[in-house]
Structure prediction request, 329 residues.
Amino acid sequence: LAVTQLSTLARSKEISINGSINAALFLGELKEQKGLLVTTATEPLTELVSDATLTPSVRIAALLGLGNRVKEARESASGSPTAANSVDIIPTMEQVISLPAEQLPAIARDWMQSRTLEYASELLLLLGDDSQKLTKVSKGATVIMKDVARSIDLRIRSVVFLSRLVDTDIELPAADIMAVTDELVRKSLREAYGTIQDKKFEEEITGIGMQGGEAEMMGFDSMGTPIEIEKNYLPITASLRASWRLVSLADSMNRLSGQMNDEKETYENNAKRLRTFGVKIYEEPKDASITSAVEAFDPESIVPDVENPEAIDPEIETTPKKFSPFKLR
Prediction:
């Protein structure tokens, strides 16, 4: 009865959107007396997730409920009813991973597909010899991975999921995945490095420090002596995101290296090197860490410093060292 009522409330147009969202969330968390999730709620949840007429927030809430079932299956004994029933979620995963752009806002679509990749990775550990049941999900992930219009993070999550299929019976386009991995390394670094250069450029043309002026870049040591503080333009959160991206891609590259035949050792070494830079950025989230990684993996993107611009002959200089909108005609 509770399953039916909550499912009806989640679809109801007569209550507030918050009420529908809460109904979907409660449906996903509904438990039996033994403390296990109610199995009869799985089908209504999959129907809510797949219903294109519902608001995205309700569909997302229902997807969280399916995620709870995957988590419970992971924690249960192998071969238990809970683990066996988790396979019923796969058709819904296949739908979500292939959601068309016009059906959902980009943020909602990205979120649902990111979670689907996460849940599929967890299910992979339960399927064992039945891993081929995730073949359609892997094909959807491959499409996302190759789509340059999709977000960098979602494409990286797709690469990570695909790399975890290495030891299964699912056929992988290893060479294509490696090519996209190389591309995503450069894009990840260019995004972070570009932010640094944009903020430097803004400071140059306005003459105002991004952190409130040069006075804030002076500090004092334990003895009270003034010292210059290293100035960083990239927010720490952006550095940590770049670190996660590089480490995730490095681990994926390492898992896939075994499928690269004669180039296996090369990719293993590249993965190790990439991971080292990713960890370095995490340990020292500074502009210098990002710049070092760019110099190593995308040196063509480095913007050279012009120490003495007055010495440059404008008649000889044909390519500006830094982009300036004032040079546009």
About this structure: Strands lie at 218-220, 226-228.
